[in-house]
Design a protein that fits this description.
The structure holds 2 protein chains of 2 kinds. In chain A, 64% of the residues lie in helices and 2% in strands. Chain A is mostly helical. In chain B, 47% of the residues are buried. By secondary structure, chain B is of the alpha+beta class. The chains are: A mainly alpha, B alpha+beta.
Chain lengths: 567, 201
């Protein structure tokens, strides 16, 4: 570890915190339906969309209607992606002549993109046409991100409102989020990325003759417009197979730094939106503090592990950190930092190959996802995930003192706690359940690229990433098989929607409750005790559930590596 | 509930048209006008022919050129399309080795490379980036140490004084942005082009 490395990390954290308040202010205005500086341009488009689709923007929805609208929206999104992938061979914008994508891979990818996972069983430059990248993937990068954000806002409204039957209008929320938040930032971000060297063209792949006279086919495409929203919306599905490690998908140290900022920007700002909507910004800062504690701890361990390197390499007389699967322009620190950010949030873009990380360095991304991706988390998903843990923590605190728990003026009762528990139980069910099936099913075992405990970690990582809707991978695992295409799709689907529906049920039940003023006996939820309690609950839940699996994977591998074993 | 079906179709199509077509196509037009070189892939031409991209690494095997890092990219096997064969710096199929820290295959491959490099330059310690594959398989850079390590071989192959080649490496070394972000590095293709120019003089 170096001083300059830590300086990069501190600078990163400082900028994320500095962006939180202004972005939170702007997003709150958007979701409250107020005018913004972009209204003169965007309001006519917004009104036009409501007019042609028959949406009455004044009419709010019950939580069930809101949820059904969201689900219908996803059925449509699924059909568009699946259709475009199956038909890409006969559709325009296909200069590389890609053939139709197979049924199971199209199914997996469509589920993957509507759930904001963006697991890459597809190969990017080797599988998809430009039209698929744009209409299939870029569009769903916007809409799945917008969905996550508006669901979080709906849950926040549940806390903020009192004695109301409705939690907002899904169509209005999703349109405003896309037009006023995601699109304008993406436009500026795209131009920045192209300036840094990212291609943005509809032209053919380039045929080059290298200095030594060999032929090199260089894949290009409309990269920047997709990458901008891929990072901002914590989608993470790469234009290229190597994702943000590809020099065209992340050309410079600066593009890397700004991409890392964009992963956290909206998720962190939502903590501020929460504070503003419930009428006390300190409530938002307390939640951000919980995230910050867990994040910095993860960065410290991952950076330390990668900088220490692998004893297998040191035995060969090499010195220094672990550079296998990392790019020189990023080095150890920016690769470790990126890995922690991308898994703390539900992004899943990678600028280094996690499969080649050291055992402990690679365990941190795994833990981040297994904790439910609540450290900032996916745009929106992180916030509603975190609020589920907050409900549990408040419930536990209430049990300790024998008093009905309250949070931001709402009584937390049996229904909320049951729903929160239901949502959280999805994680072990899908992750451990499917991983257990995969390690005894021969066709699934054959997909492992590494032998020994690392092979098990590849499988565990795959189902963890899918269930948590992350999308990063221990990419040695051959995921494009019938078994993994279907099982991973089921993990992604359940991991997304079986968490959303209970969260929306909580939103509805909270919105209907009366608001009670804080009294002497109310547990303060803006101080260090609260932060410590929530961190503790998150670690205990995650630790109890996943420690045995981690012991079989990365922990035993670390011990084996230090004992000089290879597999 | 039924009245949600119309927006589910129409609003979805409208937003798809905006985000999936209008946005990427408009960005392609604007970016192409503002940054024409980058938008096309930062291509380098020599005598009217494209020889590569400034951002994409390419394979160098000749002793008279500086070599990049090992690359784990693959290509379809010409004899059996269901299999793949190694194809270093295949810019149409990026990817890493994905071998883990306890992989025997990785340890064996690295040992072979380390032994070869030690024979080539016994006087310096082998830089780790020169024997490890990059994440994309297309890393255009090597560390300054990895470039300096190769100076004796390149100077000998070209009959140039080592000091002169060394100076060229130093001149081609890029530092951290604002002294803070990223890592010091050398672009292998740019260095080799500069080397060819120097040798031509």
């Amino acid at each position: 570890m170096t001083v300059i490395g830590w300086f990069q990390i501190i600078l990163y954290c400082a900028i994320v915190v500095a962006l939180t308040k202004p972005l939170g202010w702007y997003m709150t205005r958007v979701f409250n339906g107020e005018r913004t500086f972009l209204s003169p341009v965007l309001r006519p488009i917004e009104a036009g969309i409501y007019w042609i689709s028959g949406v009455d923007e004044k009419r709010e929805q019950h939580w069930l209607t809101y949820t059904v609208a969201m689900l219908l929206f996803h059925v449509g999104g699924f059909l568009i992606i699946y259709g475009v992938m199956r038909l890409q061979a006969v559709l325009p914008f296909n200069p590389a002549g890609q053939s139709a994508v197979a049924e199971d891979l199209s199914f997996n990818t469509a589920i993957s993109f509507i759930t904001n996972t963006n697991w890459q069983n597809y190969g990017g430059e080797g599988t998809l046409s430009y039209l698929t990248q744009m209409v299939g993937l870029t569009h769903q990068n916007f809409l799945s991100a917008a969905t996550g954000i508006v669901l979080a806002v709906a849950l926040i409204r549940g806390f903020a409102r009192a004695s109301m039957r409705t939690i907002g209008n899904f169509w209005v929320d999703v349109t405003r989020c896309t037009l006023y938040i995601l699109l304008p930032i993406s436009v500026v971000f795209t131009l920045f990325l192209v300036w840094q060297g990212m291609p943005q063209t509809l032209g053919d792949y380039v045929e080059a003759t290298t200095l030594e006279g060999a032929k090199q086919t260089i894949a290009v495409g409309p990269v920047a417009s997709q990458v901008a929203i891929k990072m901002l919306g914590t989608n993470g599905g790469g234009f290229f197979n190597a994702n943000a490690a590809h020099p065209f998908e992340n050309p410079t140290a600066l593009s890397n730094f700004v991409q890392m900022l964009s992963i956290f920007a909206l998720g962190a700002a939502l903590a501020n939106v929460f504070g503003r909507m419930v009428g006390n910004q300190r409530q938002g800062w307390a939640i951000l503090a919980v995230m910050g504690v867990l994040f910095v701890a993860g960065v410290a361990v991952c950076y330390w592990a990668e900088a220490s390197g692998s004893t297998t390499m040191h035995a060969l007389g090499l010195t220094g950190g672990n550079m296998e699967g990392k790019e020189v322009r990023f080095g150890i620190v920016a690769s470790s930092l990126f890995a922690v950010i991308t898994t703390a949030a539900s992004c899943g873009a990678v600028n280094a190959m996690h499969d080649s990380f050291t055992a402990l360095g690679g365990m941190i991304p795994l833990i981040n996802m297994e904790l439910g991706e609540i450290i900032v988390g996916g745009v929106g998903a992180g916030m509603y995930g975190m609020l589920l843990f907050v409900i549990l923590a408040i419930f536990v605190a209430g049990l300790m003192v024998g008093r009905t728990p309250e949070y931001v003026g709402k009584k937390i009762e049996a229904r909320e706690v049951k729903m929160a528990m239901l949502a959280i139980l999805v994680l072990p069910l899908m992750i451990l359940g499917w991983a257990a099936v995969a390690v005894v099913y021969p066709a699934a075992v054959a997909s492992m690229a590494n032998a020994g405990p690392h092979g098990f970690t590849e499988v565990l990582y795959a189902f963890t990433s899918a269930t948590a809707n992350n999308g990063s991978a221990f990419a040695g695992l051959t995921g494009n098989t019938f078994f993994y295409n279907l099982t991973l799709a089921s993990a992604m689907f359940v991991g997304r929607f079986f968490m959303i529906v209970p969260a929306m049920a909580i939103a509805g039940s909270l919105a209907a409750k009366k608001s009670i003023p804080p009294s002497m006996g109310t547990f303060p939820t803006t101080g260090g005790l609260f932060v410590g309690l929530v961190v503790g609950i998150i670690l205990i839940m995650g630790g109890l559930t996943f420690f045995p699996a981690l012991a079989l994977g990365p922990i035993v591998e670390h011990l084996a590596m230090n004992a000089g074993n290879v597999f | 509930m039924l009245r949600e079906i119309r927006p589910a179709i129409v609003l979805l199509l409208a937003l798809t048209a905006i985000t999936g077509l209008a946005y990427p196509l408009a960005m392609t037009g604007i970016a192409g006008a503002l940054f024409p070189v980058q938008a096309q892939g930062s291509l380098i031409e020599k005598d009217g022919k494209v020889i590569g991209s400034a951002l994409i690494g390419q394979e160098f095997k000749d002793d008279k050129y500086f070599h990049g890092r090992p690359s784990a990219t693959l290509a379809p096997d010409p004899n059996d399309s269901t299999k793949t064969v190694p194809a270093p710096y295949n810019a149409a199929n990026s990817g890493g080795s994905n071998l883990g820290p306890t992989s025997k295959a990785l340890a064996d491959r690295v040992k072979e490379d380390v032994d070869k490099l030690r024979r080539e330059n016994p006087n310096a310690s082998v830089p780790v980036d020169l024997v490890t594959t990059s994440a994309s398989g297309l890393d255009p850079n090597i560390s300054p140490e990895a470039a300096q390590f190769q100076v004796p071989r390149v100077a000998k192959a070209r009959n140039l004084p080592e000091d002169q080649v060394k100076q060229l490496v130093t001149a081609s070394t890029e530092g951290r942005l604002l002294g803070l972000l990223g890592e010091p590095r050398v672009n292998v293709l740019a260095l080799n082009l500069a080397l060819d120019r120097m040798a031509a003089k």
